[in-house]
């Protein structure tokens, strides 16, 4: 799903697209699940993800020129997350040249009965993992029947690499035929770990920020963000735990 030179737009833009052209608008939706009320006995809570999300928001709004969509906040339920993503992506205010970045942090698991990657939201029943939100289910929520043509999804969970694979597969098989693009169309999923790896709290935003700064210093951008170069810098960061590797899943959708 990847290839050298695939680039994801990352330049700073103004809020509205100018008549007759202009730069696309860029939006960020960032959330983290830090509290699990139904699983207090399992030590699932991750208060450190509050700072991790804040770091992502600061990076994208401060250095990459994105507008943060703040409605979702922290600790969403499965319904709150999917409803918010769906409502935003289906809004009549969306334009085909909009760029959307989504960051989701929390616990991720691979369900034993199905082998699917799931996101453990704040309302997840720890005794019923089969009913947890599948990562693949987010693809139609954001892409099917919407105007979203350019999407960067960042998954900061354990085993996120499998979730990235399943999301891209769902986008290409279930949504791909619905893409009618007059603008550049691309999908990038950057995950904080391989399918078999756990993710350390806070590591992903830390190495992402350093990689962005490093590429900027080296003369990359600000017009584009090269995902391949970015991931290479992230994986080369000595502060990244040795058991954790960043993965990029890249695709173009056509219809």
UniProtKB/TrEMBL annotation:
Pfam families: Peptidase_C14. Coiled coil: none annotated. Residues 36-161 form the Peptidase C14 caspase domain. InterPro entries: Caspase-like_dom_sf, Pept_C14_caspase. GO terms for biological process: proteolysis. One of its GO terms (molecular function) is cysteine-type endopeptidase activity. Residues 1-20 are annotated as: Disordered. This is Caspase family protein. It comes from Streptomyces phyllanthi.
């Amino acid at each position: 799903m990847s290839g050298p030179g695939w680039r994801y737009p990352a330049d700073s833009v103004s809020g509205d697209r100018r008549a007759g052209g202009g730069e696309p608008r860029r939006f960020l939706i960032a959330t983290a699940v830090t509290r699990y009320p139904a699983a207090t006995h399992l030590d699932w809570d991750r208060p450190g993800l509050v700072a991790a999300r804040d770091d992502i928001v600061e990076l994208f709004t401060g250095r990459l020129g994105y507008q943060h969509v703040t409605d979702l906040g922290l600790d969403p339920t499965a319904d709150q997350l999917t409803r918010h993503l769906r409502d935003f992506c289906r809004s009549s205010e969306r334009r085909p040249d909009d760029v959307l970045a989504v960051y989701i942090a929390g616990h991720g698991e691979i369900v034993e009965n199905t082998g699917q990657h799931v996101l453990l939201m704040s309302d997840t029943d720890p005794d019923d993992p089969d009913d947890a939100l599948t990562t693949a289910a987010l693809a139609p929520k954001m892409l099917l029947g919407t105007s979203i043509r350019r999407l960067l999804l960042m998954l900061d969970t354990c085993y996120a690499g499998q979730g990235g694979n399943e999301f891209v597969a769902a986008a290409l098989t279930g949504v791909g035929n619905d893409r009618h693009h007059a603008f550049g169309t691309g999908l990038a999923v950057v995950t904080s770990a391989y399918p078999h790896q756990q993710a350390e709290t806070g590591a992903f935003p830390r190495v992402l920020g350093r990689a962005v700064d490093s590429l900027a210093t080296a003369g990359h951008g600000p017009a584009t963000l090269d995902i391949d170069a970015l991931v290479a810098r992230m994986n080369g960061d000595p502060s990244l735990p040795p058991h954790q590797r960043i993965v990029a899943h890249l695709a173009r959708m056509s219809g």
